[in-house]
endopeptidase La
Amino acid sequence: MKELLDKLLQRHKYLEPTAEEELRRQVNVLYGAFTGLIGSEKMVLRASKYSALTYIHSEDPRQRLVGLQRLVYESTSYDRIPDDNEVVDILNDLESVLAEMLARQAVEERLEKKIAQRMEEKQQEYVQEIKMQIISEELQDVETPQTKRKLEELKKLDTVQLTESVMERVRPKTLGNIIGQERAVEAMKSKLASVYPQHLLLYGPPGVGKTTAARIILEEAKKMSFTPFKENAPFIETDGTTLRWDSRDMTNPLLGSVHDPIYQGAKRDLADTGIPEPKPGLVTDAHGGILFIDEIGEMDPMLLNKLLKVLEDKKVSFDSAYYDETDPNVPEYIRKLFREGAPADFILVGATTRDAAEINPAIRSRCAEVFFEPLVPQDIEKIVRNAAVQLGVTIEAGVPEQIALYTVEGRKAVNILADAYGVAVYQKKDKDNILLTCEHVKRVAQISRLVPYAVKKASDTPIVGKIFGLGVAGYLGSALEIEAIAFPAHQSGKGYYRFNDTAGSMAKDSMFNAAAVVRQITGKELSDYDVNINFVGGGNIDGPSAGCAITTLLISALMNTPIRQDYAVTGEISVQGKVKPVGGVFEKAYGAKQAGMKGIIIPKENEMDIPEGHLQLDIRSVETIQDILKIMLV
């Protein structure tokens, strides 16, 4: 037994130096790794801070292990020398901590490397931009890398484009493509494409070709040797409803303005020296060409008066409290603008949907006036057929006629056609071989809540106590259905008459004149009857033009005589039975045509207001109420 114990002791003595050496080697490796991780200088500083120098320089690896604990965990609480069983656990813990620290350091080094690389790239780009900026300044180039980048973005956006709009596709390219405006186009051409072109005011409903006609006529005038328009004559278009200006002339896009160098800003070289910069407006852009102002009737009256001054002077004058003519730093072009003004020799073409009486008399006196006519159903049908060809759409018979029921505007008719085409494509799920039918148009009318613009009212059957008068609203006329019925009064001389209150005082005055004429012709006293007169549909009658119709209606009701239902009547009645002239006869004829009338009766003095056979109507002019009765009473 003793021999066995001696062998074990000797074996222990033989193995112990090997384990001690292994521990020392492991501790040295850990020290080396930690030193490489934080550096020698930080190693010494940390050892001093946590009182680990004694442990570090010890020959005992276990004491050195304690010193390493203090360094790694940054704590002085480690002072107990570990036994053999604890050494392995401590080594494993230290290895794990150092491995984590090394991994973190590797990641940080990799990130720092990438950051440094990226910073170097950005620095090179920045240096390059600075170089380009310096070169641009030397070459007086206003573009910077930022502005050039913005320009490239805009150019990129320009390459993206949806399909052209329907109106762009079907817009008339020649005067022959403008439907239903032959007289207006001829008048415009004679006034614009002339040796001495005139300023124009165009009146008419929307969507009938006013803007298009002006643009096309200018293009044709450029090709004529006797006109003053050059090949590069501009056509500047703007909208009178959107023209805004400042009463102090700080901004005025139409006429131009002066930008003071302090509040509004100017070019840098001008702002530094306090020089105001005039900014010419649209009137200067239109110099030598046409300035087209749509909805000119909506312009600010003061701005319109300023425009009249420009039309007379053919230039725009500028003024500024900041301008000093003796300043040697003022550029010559600014000096010229202040001294002579900006040129503004152009032809003004204004378009409006207002009545001529609502337009400023001053502008009317300086302009020739051209009236565009409302489109009749036949014109709308032709526009629809032409648009269908240009759009490549096959339409069913009856589609143009159906679209013409819902609008009197060419633009609106094309939009209805395009909407119906969209419905057809949606239903078929294919854009090829589309047949546009009346059902598609009906579907569009239902969705858009369209109602027939005009309903045929005329009839070949004469009726007692019913007549059609004529009214006008804007540039469109309409047939007014008026009816009356008369009963003997319960007591002679105690009769009454009832009249629409909404018809207005002028219509009631016409009633009094008509009563006198009725008594003169029939010998009947209106006070012996109870009379009811009704303007079907209501509405205010602003004028005496219903006088002849009311007189004829009363005679029919009192005498029980039928009235023709295929003719309409307009005209003022005098107490002597004379037919007096009225306004809007041209437009009223359009209303009669829409209602399906064969003809109209107008005052003799209005005979020159409307051409013979206009709209294929039988136009009869009369002088007295007896002339009307011969035509209307059956």
